[in-house]
Amino acid sequence: MEILLNHPVVKQVISIENSQIIDRRNYTSKVCNVFLNRYTCLKESDSFHFSIDAEARKQLDKIIDMKVQLISDQVPDDDAFIQFYTQKRHIGVVFSGGPAPGGHNVVAGIFDAAKKANSENRIFGFLLGPDGILENEYIEITQEIVDKYRNLGGFTMIKTGRTKIDSKSKLTLSKNTCKRLHLSALVIIGGDDSNTNAAFLAQEFYDEGIQVIGVPKTIDGDIQVRDSNKTVLCATSFGFYTAARAFAESVSRLSTDSSSDVKYWHICKVMGRVASHLALEVALQTHANMTLIGEELADYVDIKRLEKAKQRGEIDYTAYGMTLRHLSRVICDAIVRRAAVGKNYGVIVIPEGVLEFINEIQVFIIKLNTIIAEYNQTHDRDFHEAFPQLEDKLDYLRRLARSARENNTISVWNTRDDDLFHDIPDFFQEGLLMERDSHGNFQFSQIETDKIIISMVKDYLNILKEQGLYKIGIERSWYRSKMEESGLDADFYGSILFKNYDTGAYLLFKETIMSKKKLVQELVKENVISSDRELPKIIEKIYSKSVPKFKNQTHFFGYDGRGSDPTMFDCVYGYNLGLAAFSLLANKATGMMAAIKNLEYEFEEWQPIGIPIAPLMHLEERQAKLNLVIEKSLVNVNSNAFKVVKSLRSKWLAATPHDDDYRRPGPITFGQDMSWEKPISLTLNALTID
Ligand code: FBP
After folding, report:
1. Which end of the chain is more exposed for a tag (fewer CB within 10 A), N or C?
2. Which protein residue has the closest C-alpha to ligand 1 atom 18?
3. Ligand 1 contact, 277 CB (< 6 A)
């Protein structure tokens, strides 16, 4: 064995190094022009305004009036500036929340810029996310460590975690750690909640002179910053594009497979906790047959239902918003339409957060969030510890509802809620009652959204099948040739069997012919065969071909794409964010988010900036309390990207006899000489159409 393992070929093929990884490590990112200069400074801009929340002014008074800072190379010619810029610093960095491709490059950017300013600067990486700060667990980031992870995915260098620094004692622990390490600055690389945290830390550390800078990270793409005039300051977070491309590649491969063996519907759930940005980008990248966009469902109005109610002189409020039942009907309609042209296969993309936009589910999520949070606030034990099993939780809910009825009090959970909740499958009940994350967010990735939707779709397809409305269209030329081969008159039988024999390129059996028995009855009725005669074999064969079998495969694309090596876009974006973060802290900024304005345009137009975080905050209910948080950006249904997807929806559904319109984005590639691409949604949204 030893000899085999030491064989040079064996050693080579099982090595964890390969040319791709080596190329990635050796690649030096392009930098925005300002960073070519030895020093950078900040120019305060008065062009951008925010409407400030009164509570944010109250809680974050020390950092609320900060302005957007443009990073510039027009540095002042004075010693004090140079002295501060180049002073010896200890900088802490931490990843917070889910991994996002490009994160290692942010650290590399901070490291390179810090060493360029002063080779004695030291960078400390807190381990396992904010827990590392609280518990003073860190490593010193060296040149060797940085070079090992350059342009590679994951947050493996120092790992990550979801702990929130949200109490006085945690703020104090964090301050102690920073002081112990003599940190002059802390950089938090995280999502909306982590940047919210960064603002509170900046406020807390302000008097100590410890600066806090945030960096916009999340594959979800829901940190987008616009000022009150809708000017885009940050078009997306780093990591979004890589995850979208990775998901798109898998979805595209499934489109290829599905249109080859033509027997499966692939149901692809893609990550994105609430916002559907990832699903939208995947739609643009792949032209999957159907893509649900949660934000659109929330705006849905059932006009027919409204009109019916109007005739009765009533207003039907339930017509506003989408129900699960209606959503399953919409999906069935697409499946039935494709089947009618012989396509009993396809690909559907479902955003993991879609349930957030479904009326009845949203109500359950809000109510259960409140119940769990209230329980945790009033009891010593956590709700999930107190009620470990589903039955225990259901029992608690039942008691809540019963007590409200018996005491005639208004409760967040009443007997109607309880009855409705009991009608949904166990696994879904379990999902809705699952533990919330440390920020009180519902964990959509843990719920089998696809399974819930597909089980309803299957039920309804069976009904449509029984009604004779779900059938596979039979290609006219195939039908003719088979009938001719059997010596039967195609036209004679055609007008008896099919409802569209005069016009259809794909022939659909009449709705009344929904079983073999009904087929025989029809032919007997038309005096084609006598009741004791057998059905001609070829007619039986043609009929069998028209009977749909709905077969599906479900897939979840999330953690795989999140762990992908970054696209060139995210490598360069991440690295420049790191440089911007250092520039902000070397210029005394705090409570700022490093960002790149004009990300949606050519690289030459990228403008590194600092965005004040406090003015982005608003009050939101979390864990049954109103909290200041950065607002998540959802898909704008008036954006160009959404409008393009909406208007090409029918083309991509391809419920026509023609070919499907699938797009192949191809794999994420890496090469210095390769032109690098950016998200299609960003490009579309940047277009101004008069
Ligand atoms: P962040 O917002 O922290 O970047 O995480 C986003 C995300 O990847 C979501 O898309 C997904 O719903 C969630 O994290 C999964 O969380 P976890 O990693 O805790 O399972």
Report:
1. C
2. 98
3. no
pLDDT along the chain (690 residues), means of 10: 94 91 94 97 96 95 97 94 97 97 98 98 98 97 98 98 92 96 98 94 96 98 96 98 98 98 96 95 98 92 86 82 88 97 97 88 86 88 90 93 87 88 83 79 78 91 96 97 96 96 94 93 89 86 96 96 96 98 98 97 96 95 82 95 97 96 94 73 92
Is any ligand 1 atom within 6 A of the Cβ of residue 577?
no
Residue 213: domain span: 23-70+90-239+566-630
Cβ of residue 155 lying under 6 Å from some atom of ligand 1: no
Q: Mark whether 330 and 403 lie in a shared domain.
A: yes
Helix (H) or strand (E) holding 4, with range, is: helix 2-6
Q: How far is the CA of 97 from the centre of ligand 1 (A)?
A: 7
Ligand 1 pocket check: which of 194, 218, 350, 435 to mutate, most ligand atoms within 8 Å of Cβ?
Answer: 218
Pocket test for ligand 1, best of 562, 570, 630, 633 (most atoms within 8 A of CB): 562
DSSP H helices, 587-679, are: 640-653
Catalytic residue among 166, 220, 227, 570: 220
Does 185 lie in the same domain as 203? yes
HSE, side-chain direction, 13 A CA sphere, residue 576: 29
- Lay out the sheet containing 41-44: strands in order across: 41-44, 69-72, 607-612, 592-597, 211-216, 185-190, 90-95, 122-126, 138-141
Identify the CATH number of the domain in which residue 197 sits: 3.40.50.450
- The tally of domains found in the chain comes to 3
pTM over the 0.70 mark: yes
417: CB partners within 8 A, 6+ apart: 364, 367, 397, 401
Contact indicator for 324, 453 with CB cutoff of 8 Å:
yes
CA of 281 to the centre of ligand 1 (A): 17
In a domain, 18, yes or no: no
State the Cα angle at 100 between 96 and 103, rounded to 5°: 75
Q: Indicate the top mutation candidate among 197, 219, 274, 633 to test ligand 1's pocket, ranked by most ligand atoms within 8 A of CB.
A: 219
Is 491 assigned a catalytic role? no
How distant, in Å, are the alpha carbons of 503, 511, 513, 514, 549 from that of 498? Answer: 10, 9, 9, 12, 20
Q: And the tokens for 198? A: 């960064």
Cα 561 to ligand 1 centroid, rounded to whole Å: 12
Q: Are 143 and 16 in contact (CB under 8 A)?
A: no
352 with 253, same domain?
yes
**Cβ neighbours of residue 525 under 8 Å, at least 6 residues apart?**
none
- Those residues with Cβ within 8 angstroms of residue 395's Cβ, 6 or more apart along the chain or in another chain: 387
Length of the chain: 690
